[in-house]
Amino acid sequence: MNTTAFLPRIWVLPGILAACLCVAGSAQTPFLEKVPTSPSLTPLTMIIGGRVLHSGANEYVYQWPGTYFETAFRGPELYLRVRTNHEILHVVVDGHPALVLSKPQPGVYRLSGLKNRRHDVRVLVVTESQDAPNVFGGFGISAGERALQLRTPHRQIEFIGDSHTVGYGNTSPKRDCTNDEVWATTDNSQNFGPLTANHYHADYQINAISGRGIVRNYNGFAADTLPVAYPYVLFDKKQQYSDVEWKPQIIVIALGTNDFSTPLNPGEKWKTRDELHSDYETTYLHFLQFLRARDPGAYIIVWATDMANGEIESEAQKVVQQMKAQGETKIAFLPMDHLQFSGCHWHPSVADDKTIRDKLVQFIDAHKLWKEE
Question: What is the sign of the dihedral through the CA atoms of 58, 100, 24 and 188?
Answer without folding.
Answer: negative
